[in-house]
Amino acid sequence: MPVTDVHHDSEARSLTIVADFAAPVERIWQIYADPRQLEKIWGPPEYPATVVDHDLRPGGRVTYYMTGPTGDKHAGYWDITTVDEPHGFSFDDGFAEPDFTPKTDLPVSKNVFTFTGHDGGTRATYVSTYASAEALQQVLDMGMIEGATSAINQIDALIGG
C-alpha cells in the first residue's frame, strides 16, 4: 500500500498523510490535473467521485460529488490557491450542497499536496489544516483517515504500481 504514514495533530489542527509511489512526480501530478483520472482516486472505492468542473489554477475551482453505495450523493469543492506544476498545489476543500454552494455547517480544510522525487519514485505529502481542533475532530469522526487512506491507495492501480 502506498500510504506509509498518517498523523493527526489536534494542537496544530492538522491531518498529514504520506504516500510513496513507484512513478515519477509528473505522473502523480497528471492524476490530479486530469479530471477523468482524478475521479478514479478522489474518494474511497465505495464512494466514487464524479468531477463536474476542473479548473486547476490559482483562483480556479474544482467541483465534484461522490456517490455512495445506495445512490446517495455528497458534493464538494476545491478553491485552488496555488499551483506549482508538477510539484503540488494548495486549495481549500469544503462540503457543498448539490448545486455546489458551500455547506457552512461543515468544516473547510486548507490543503497542501506536495509531490517530490523519492527512491526513484514519488513521495506525496497531503496536509489538511482545519480552523479548530473541533473541526478536525468532526472530520476524523466522519471517517476521514480511513476514507482518505483508501482513496490514496487507489493511485497504485491507476499507475500500474
Number of domains: 1
Tell me about the largest β-sheet.
Answer: 8 strands, antiparallel
Secondary structure: number of strands: 8
The unreliable regions are none
- The computed structural class is alpha+beta
Quote the CATH topology: Alpha-D-Glucose-1,6-Bisphosphate, Chain A, domain 4
CATH superfamily: START domain
**What is the CA-based Rg, rounded?**
15 Å
Q: Give the amount of beta strand, in percent.
A: 35-45%
Straight-line distance between termini: 10 Å
Strands of the largest sheet, in order across it?
Answer: 1-2-8-7-6-5-4-3
**Any guess at the CATH architecture?**
2-Layer Sandwich
Portion in helices:
10-25%
The shape is globular
Q: What integer is the average pLDDT?
A: 95
Order of helices and strands: EEHHEEEEEEHHH
The count of helical stretches stands at 5
CATH class: Alpha Beta
